[in-house]
Design a protein that fits this description.
The complex is a heterodimer. Chain A is of the alpha/beta class. Chain A contains 13 helices and 28 strands. Chain A has a 7-stranded parallel β-barrel with strand order 1-2-3-4-5-10-11, surrounded by 5 helices. In chain A, strands 14-13-15-16-19-18-17 form a 7-stranded mixed β-sheet, with helices on both faces. In chain A, strands 12-21-22-28-24-25 form a 6-stranded antiparallel β-sheet, covered by helices on one side. The relative contact order of chain A is 0.12. Chain B is of the alpha+beta class. Chain B has a domain of about 230 residues: ApbE-like domains (T-fold, Roll). Classes of the chains: A alpha/beta, B alpha+beta. Chains A and B meet through β7, β8, α6, α10 and α12 of A and α1, β1, β2, β6 and β8 of B.
Chain lengths: ~500, ~350
């Protein structure tokens, strides 16, 4: 799909008073010919390490790029040694699936051995962001399966990013993906401007970094000044500019759910579906569960088995009104002695203090229903954000602690103009909306209803950003859940 | 959807080779287009020699569905249906031919089903959808009040193009028929563009097969099987299949919610079945699927025979099946599928029969 007609050429993005929240995009380049960095609008190239990589590296440096080399764990030491005289900017480590666990330790050692280099870990589980249909293309035809009307499926990298933020703390997640073409026409045409733009928008909205894979024909066309290729790329540049690196580190992710887990195994699909249903969550490693990490959290989804200290933390959390959902976790726990018990086919619900503990005895085999259940468990009056009539949009809420303003990043995987309604917890006096296509900023009209602010997003094509500000001097409950929990969960759950 | 596809992929396979026969039309290539409309994804696949022609035809068909969404949506406040729902209580309203026709067809199904199929059930659907989102189940008094708003006999059609509501709180919701109607109109567009081999999918719940794929007697569609044991299938050729199933139960045991409402009881339907129904048009299969799920297999048999040229299969999560047919075959395990791969002549026969 071409978005050329939807974009407004020549629009300059205005400088924003509020901070930019951004992701860094590197372009993966494999062809000898390349346009200057200034023209491409990208300062960093990722070059896969291979026999011809040194010549490519020279060409890239001549064209004004900072060069990163993509290497395997087996190659990394030798290439790093060579790099002390070659002068590339850094190495991107691509561990195989079996090497993921050791990658962090390898990076630590490399950083000590080669302190002048930047070392990045590349997440290999990335997938092309897209809204998908139901039909599956087999080698020789189509697979079609009837069902009740299905919601549009969204392939996003949010779960991958959230796991990386937990398991590789201290570094911005860096991922890449291969373009997936499901039918002959797509294979023939390759990705278009909208697909590149969506990839850039997604990484930017998630505050992650991306290596964008460009097909060889686009690389060569750009290098040889093909006008069509540059028309495409100029549309992408608008998104690169919109999501440029800023002071995103100062922004805090607003979450109401924490997922506590040892690994992605066994929890990935549940987390992926939570992301799909716009449940804002963060992932906690086993060692990260503490009273502080549960502050402002309504629901703890636990895939790890708690030990004595963690059992106490969970007990305190639910006693104060929180909901703990234990998945396939077995053992004797204090809440099991309560008289307030309700059993379903798959779960046992214990009323504890002002909150509740829900134990699922087995793994989650229906992550879609599980994610919807998590959404239902959220107290209505405390849901940070809801969207209506936009099943192809993900929203990522952030808060600027310096100003107490809320910033919402929107990504529409349909890549078509969409109007929809938003409800945000808190009372906001000013709402400004900017997009890569239209720049900054359109003022939206808020409506205040029962502690929430409601408004209409008039036209989201791929990416957009909302700035929600309180009236001067006002700082009330905002999209983050920093209010005291109301503590009626036990009563609610047991009366279901 | 990775997890669900992983579940079905092992069971289901449809291999349509475009190379096994020698007819001229087999030079056609496969083209695909999809779009998010009516809260789901409509997909069209077309076999045609020209990519430009196929792309244009698919785009026009999808744009027709977009147009109809603007007519039939009850989510869009500016849709024609929303305007009708706001004003038809006061006086008869002039409506477009599409809205008149789809409501007329809806009312005929209401009469046929003795009120089990009822597009005026909207207020109850809205309330129970809220319950699905976690809001409290409506108390009996509220439910009773909402039920008073429901009743297809309170909708008056005034030919040729006016509609009036005889209830101050009646609301029409075309969710149980609108997608099927849209599929039929899209089929008309494709036919008008001389497309002879195409499949339209409305979010997985309604398929229509135009002609057949090259070298095959029809479009093979695997039907919903909550037991994962039966693998029912149907070959579509100038006909449609629709599937209905109640919203899955919450893992937490909240069984009181669901999006398919029994108008008689004013509450979500309780059923162990998933239901698929084959019929001549998308409108009929879509409306029948909800109706037959509501009435169940015993009463449903008569309806299937009454409609004619239809077939239905009820499949429970335990693998219990009930089949009713007045023409089309629904294939299940042990019911061989010898007609899947055929030569071009069979494909032409599919076209000739129509």
């Amino acid at each position: 799909m071409s978005i050329g007609k939807k974009l407004f050429p020549g629009l300059l993005l205005c400088a924003l008073v509020a901070p930019r929240v951004t992701g860094k995009v590197m372009v993966r380049w494999t062809q000898r010919a390349m346009p200057p960095a200034k023209s491409l609008g990208v300062s960093e190239l990722a070059l896969p390490w291979s026999a011809g990589a040194e010549a490519l590296m020279d060409a890239a440096r001549d064209r004004g790029y900072r060069v990163y080399l993509e290497v395997t764990p087996q190659q990394v030491a030798a290439v790093a040694e060579m790099g002390t005289k070659e002068g590339f900017a850094g190495l991107i480590l691509e561990p195989g699936p079996a090497e993921q666990r050791d990658a962090e330790e390898l990076l630590r050692k490399l950083r000590i051995a080669y302190p002048k280099f930047t070392f990045r870990l590349l997440l290999s589980e990335g997938k092309q962001p897209q809204r998908r249909g139901q039909l599956v293309y087999e080698r020789d035809g189509i697979l079609q399966v009837s069902s009740p009307t299905a919601q549009p499926w969204v392939d996003s990298n949010l779960a991958v990013v959230r796991f990386a933020q937990a398991f590789h703390p201290g570094s911005t997640p860096l991922y890449t993906f291969a373009w997936s073409a499901s039918d002959p026409l797509q294979k023939q045409l390759g990705p278009g401007a909208a697909e590149y733009a969506l990839a850039v928008a997604e990484a930017g909205a998630f505050h992650a970094d991306l290596i964008l894979d460009l097909p060889e024909n686009l690389q060569n066309s750009l290098a040889h000044d093909d006008p069509d290729a540059w028309t495409t790329w100029k549309q992408v540049q608008r998104f690169l500019g919109f999501y440029v690196r800023g002071n995103r580190d100062s922004l805090q992710l607003v979450t109401s759910v924490s997922v506590w887990t040892d690994s992605e195994k066994g929890s990935y699909e549940a987390v992926n579906l939570m992301a799909r249903h716009n449940i804002s969550f963060r992932v906690l490693r086993k060692e990260d569960l503490n009273t502080r990490s549960l502050k402002d959290v309504d629901i703890l989804v636990a895939f790890s088995t708690p030990e004595k200290e963690q059992i106490e933390i969970i007990s305190d959390f639910v006693a104060e009104g929180g909901t703990a959902v234990l998945v396939n976790v077995h053992g004797s726990f204090p809440w099991q002695s309560t008289n307030s018990v309700r059993r379903t086919e798959q779960a046992v619900v214990y009323g504890v203090g002002k909150g509740r503990v829900i134990e699922f005895s087995g793994p989650i085999i229906d992550p879609e229903t599980f994610a919807q259940d998590i959404r239902r468990l959220m107290a209505k009056e405390r849901i940070p954000i809801s969207l209506w009539n936009s099943l192809t949009t993900l929203v990522i809420p952030y808060r600027d602690p310096r100003t107490d303003h809320t910033i919402l990043e929107l990504i529409n995987y349909e890549e078509e103009p969409l109007q929809f309604q938003v409800q945000v917890k808190g009372s906001f006096a000013s709402i400004r909306y900017e997009t890569p296509e239209h720049g900054c900023c359109e003022t939206l009209t808020p409506r205040h209803v029962n502690g929430f602010t409601e408004f209409v997003v008039p036209n989201l094509v791929i990416g957009g950003r909302l700035y929600l500000q309180h009236a001067a001097g006002q700082k009330d409950g905002h999209a983050s859940n920093n209010q005291k929990r109301t503590g009626d969960h036990a009563e609610k759950s047991l009366s279901q | 959807m990775p997890w669900s596809k992983a579940i079905v992929a092992g069971l289901l396979l449809a291999a349509f080779t475009a190379t096994s026969a020698a007819a001229p039309e087999l030079k056609a290539s496969l083209f695909h287009k999809d779009k998010y409309i009516m809260g789901t994804v409509f997909e069209i696949v077309v076999y045609h020699p020209s990519s430009d022609h196929a792309a244009q035809a698919m785009e026009e068909a999808l744009q027709e569905i977009v147009r109809l969404d603007g007519v039939m949506s009850n989510y869009k406040t500016d849709s024609e249906l929303s305007r009708l729902n706001r004003t038809a209580h006061f006086r008869a309203q002039v409506v477009s031919p599409d809205l008149y026709r789809v409501i007329e067809e809806s009312l005929s199904f209401s009469r046929l089903s003795g009120g089990k199929f009822d597009v005026t059930v909207g207020p109850l659907v809205d309330r129970w959808k809220a319950a699905l989102r976690g809001e409290p189940v409506p108390p009996p008094a509220e439910e009773e009040k909402l039920r008073a708003c429901v009743g297809f006999e309170k909708v008056e059609l005034i030919p040729p193009n006016q509609i009036k509501f005889h209830s101050p709180c009646l609301q029409i919701d075309l969710g149980a028929i609108g997608k099927g109607y849209a599929v039929d109109r899209a089929v008309e567009i494709l036919r008008a563009r001389d497309i002879k081999s195409a499949l339209i999918d409305a979010g997985g719940s309604t398929f229509y097969g135009v002609g057949s794929p090259p070298g095959h007697a029809g479009w093979l569609v695997h039907l919903r099987d909550p037991s994962n044991k039966i693998d029912p299938q149907v070959m579509l050729c100038e006909n449609s299949v629709s599937t209905s199933e109640q919203t899955p139960k919450s893992l937490l045991g909240n069984e009181s919610a669901g999006h398919i409402i029994d108008p008689e009881k004013g509450a979500p339907l309780r059923t162990k079945y998933a239901l698929s129904v084959v019929a001549k048009t998308g409108t009929v299969s879509d409306a029948l699927s909800t109706t037959l799920l509501l009435v169940g297999p015993e009463k449903g048999r008569g309806l299937v025979e009454g409609v004619g040229d239809a077939a239905a299969i009820w499949v429970s999560s335990e693998g219990q099946t009930e089949i009713a047919t007045s023409g089309p075959r629904i294939l299940t395990e042990g019911n061989s599928r010898s007609d899947v791969s055929v030569t071009g002549s069979a494909q032409k026969m599919c076209m000739a029969e129509k």
